[in-house]
Amino acid sequence: MLLGIDTSGAVSVAVARGELTGPAPEILEVRADERSRHHDEVLLALIDEAMRAAGAERAELTGVIVGRGPGPFTGLRVGLVSARSIAAVLGVPLHGLSSLDALAHQALAAHGPAQDGPVTVGVALDARRREVYHARYRREADGEVTRTADPAVDAPAEVGEQLTACDILVGSGTGIYPDLLPATADLVHVDAGHLLLAAAELSARGEDLSSTEPMYLREPDAAKPTARKSALGR
Fold it and tell me: 100-176 — its CATH code?
């Protein structure tokens, strides 16, 4: 039994039957909360709700998969710390992958089978500060998906041409900058079920999913003061 957690934007959790190796996991339940600033309030409750709905206990989990972002600092920390804690308490493996990879998998699943030929995907997530986190992907006719441009953060105008050249363009950034990044499908946040399925596909290809370090891509909004002021302000 696998647990998937993603807090790169909204909060999404999924429970699946199976393992990362072998046949694709069977997604049993997915729960989500679309609010972007309440991760610490809703995540554990969503996990419990999804586990109950799946008829499973935490003791049955054999692995935890977490989205590494990119995303807001606080939200990512909540998801990563929770995933690490659950995996450590249960003594089960913890795996991580880019949330952009998961959303690309989700977009391709909605697009349909691969037999019609190659398909390209652009993913753009809201990064605030008038920027987007983005990456690009290509699925070949045989179904293999490769990332053609690694995750980065830029102003929408700087990457709009590359992203809109893709056959599919999805993510929360498209809703904020529709003129520069017009969406081709209504996919905004990561579905943790697709996080699990994407992880299984990457694992089957021999990808290393051992890192659960957050993909922040830039420095925090809050900066340390460069000099300490005295009590009198001098």
Answer: 3.30.420.200
Residue 61 · residue 2 · CB < 8 Å: yes
Kindly report the backbone phi and psi dihedral angles of residue 232, in degrees, each rounded to the nearest multiple of 5, phi listed first. Answer: -95, 5
Closest alpha carbon to 135 in 178, 171, 93: 171
- Which tokens in the block code for residue 19? 């393992």
CA angle at 134 for the pair 177 and 100, rounded to the nearest 5°: 115
Domain boundary assignment for the chain: 2-98+190-204, 100-176
Is there a contact between 134 and 154 (Cβ–Cβ < 8 Å)? yes
CA distance 1 to 56: 8
Fold for the domain defined by 2-98+190-204: Nucleotidyltransferase; domain 5 (3.30.420)
Rounded average pLDDT over 75-86: 95
Instruction: Using the predicted structure, report yes or no on whether residue 194 has a pLDDT greater than 70.
Output: yes
CA distances from 57 to 38, 65, 214 (A): 25, 17, 27
- pLDDT score recorded for residue 218: 78
Q: What is the mean pLDDT of residues 58-77?
A: 94
Taking the model in full, what pTM does it have?
Answer: 0.90
Stretch 207-230: mean pLDDT: 70
Other residues' Cβ atoms within 10 Å of the Cβ of residue 134: 29
Q: Could you tell me where the beta strands, DSSP code E, fall in the chain?
A: 2-6, 11-17, 26-33, 63-67, 94-97, 119-126, 132-139, 145-154, 168-170
